Amino acid sequence: MTHSLNAAVIGLGSMGWGAAISLLRAGVPTTGVDIASQVLQRFQAEGGRSASTPAEAAAEADVIFVFVVNADQTEQVLFGPNGAVANARAGTVFLLCVTMPPSASIALCDRLTASGMQPIDAPVSGGSVKALAGEMSIMASGDPKAFERAAPALEAITSKVFRLGNTPGMASQVKMINQLLAGVHIAATAEALTLGAKIGIDLQQLYDVICECAGSSWMFENRGAHIVAGDYTPHSAVDIFVKDLGIVASEAEEAGCRTPLTTASLALFHQASAAGFGREDDSAVAKVLAASANVSLPGVSTAEKS
Amino acid sequence: MTHSLNAAVIGLGSMGWGAAISLLRAGVPTTGVDIASQVLQRFQAEGGRSASTPAEAAAEADVIFVFVVNADQTEQVLFGPNGAVANARAGTVFLLCVTMPPSASIALCDRLTASGMQPIDAPVSGGSVKALAGEMSIMASGDPKAFERAAPALEAITSKVFRLGNTPGMASQVKMINQLLAGVHIAATAEALTLGAKIGIDLQQLYDVICECAGSSWMFENRGAHIVAGDYTPHSAVDIFVKDLGIVASEAEEAGCRTPLTTASLALFHQASAAGFGREDDSAVAKVLAASANVSLPGVSTAEKS
Asked: CA separation (Å) from B15 to A115, A221, B23, B130, B175?
């Protein structure tokens, strides 16, 4: 199947790569942009086109996905030197698939609209495996006409689109609240399993029972399994939550809201990052608690605990 | 169906009442004990027998369930004046269905064993509705012979028994870890929904989306619905978590474990209790955060927020 639609993906990290490959698989001609030339070569080998700048990629695109790391990078690839917007045709749909402060997403979407573009505020989730399978989830808000135009591309990369209103901003707000809960639940999982280990409970049995009880959470089931197995291969890294809970904390402060659990969790992620675990799986926040309690967790060496 | 087994239930609060009624429904002759005489009259009207003291109830019982509030009350009804143990036959099975510090449960079970009784450490969960339906969950550890003897009674009141080893203590330990997670997740739910309301997100939509995302938890789904509906009818009260997270905090301190999320959550439950919400649903912890952020939550009057 081929589409009349041309897509571009700016940023071929784990999520952007998965999106770009899923677009190719669905027959959508797709141009990739990344600062790493090896990644672009790999993408060409998969049948994609590569561009050296966002501006070059934007020239022929009808739909442009932005998969960079944060709001600053998003602004650069859109409006900076060789940015996409100056070279894009009027009416091009821009999907901002970046977890950033809602206020930043709203401001960038407003600038896109003022430049004659059609923005969709579209933070994603699901991890790299789902991204590669074309099954990420997107929370999205924007003009229905933009959704209509982008529909074949969205269908190619997602298993679920949460439509959250016609005005950009709402999606990033809901995503931020989701990250608050996700980050706190990871920290809670670490705290619970570390205390369990310290008082001598068998972690596998503890995990199995809690998964069936009212203390469970999506993150307990998912990340708890990593801690019990002692496997800190990064699916999503500690530093992602340093960023995402940092966004929650600053936006909450701005709004005049107390967020004591976010504050406590963010401190743990900061400590884990400072201890050298920033690129490990986010469940490595447990290593900080284990070290301070002098308790052994599966797969954690003594050196890491010091 | 009738059983040769005679049961007693000490403490006819919401969980104990549900257990006692479920025992009657299953044909197990059951004696109830409570300090409230109206409750005993209601129990007689349902076909139960009543006793005025634990000692009186213990005389004919093969299996005795203890459903009082905490470790001190448990000690009183077992070993205090008119306590059950002095009057019980050797080999009577005692199920301690109370959430208490694991160290206290172990000590009480040891004393029961020393008195010739068969103790099962058996904290329960599930709430009053499930209790009444004979569908509570029990985490239980103790001698297999005690389980065998109590089987018809356990079957009458539970839908799920988690067997956690042959020595009392393990069940209370796992229950404590479950309560850590449950309490933190309730506080996180309150924090997330309050921030969501403050930045203007529609709470029903936020709730519906998060329930399908990685930020969800059993408590978010359950208690989040209470906050969105503005319904603080107590299913489980704020003061229960003042107690249960207090147990976690003190046992963790004893063990030399940092529990920053427990600490932050316990502070919120204390604040909610001090503000007069101790007997409301535990989700009323959100009222404390809403008041400090000056944000309206559904069903919360201005007076409550001041």
From this structure: 63, 28, 12, 9, 16
B141 has a pLDDT exceeding 60 = yes
CA-nearest residue to A209 within chain B is B162
Question: CB A210 to CB B162 under 8 A?
Answer: no
A256 contacts in B (CB within 8 Å)?
198, 293-294
Question: Please, what is the Cα angle at B41 between B36 and B46, to 5 degrees?
Answer: 125
- A190: Cα within 13 Å, side-chain hemisphere: 30
The H-assigned helical ranges of B256-306 are 260-272, 285-293, 302-305
What residue ranges in B35-157 does DSSP mark as E strands? 49-51, 63-66, 93-96, 118-121, 124-125, 136-142
User: 3-state DSSP call for residue A279?
Assistant: coil
Identify the CA nearest to B295 among candidates B196, B160, B222.
B196
Cβ neighbours of residue B304 under 8 Å, at least 6 residues apart?
Answer: B277, B287, B291
Identify from A204, A206, A217, A295 which residue to disrupt to test chain B contact, counting B C-beta atoms within 10 A and taking the largest count: A217
Distance CA B86, CA B115 (A): 8
* Interatomic CA distance for residues B298 and B139, integer angstroms: 36
In tens, the pLDDT along A120-170 reads 999 998 888 899 999 999 999 999 999 999 999 999 999 999 999 999 999
CB count in 10 Å sphere of residue B282: 30
Smallest CA-to-CA distance from A32 within A52, A3, A14 is with A52
Point out the residue among A174, A219, A260 whose CB comes nearest to the CB of B268. A260
Q: Please identify which of the residues A145, A175, A198, A243 carries the catalytic annotation.
A: A175
Q: B218-229 vs B203-210: helix axis angle to the nearest 10?
A: 170
Domains of chain A: 7-166 (3.40.50.720), 173-305 (1.10.1040.10)
pTM: 0.92
Structural element, H or E, at residue A118? strand A118-121
A vs B: CB pairs below 8 A: 209
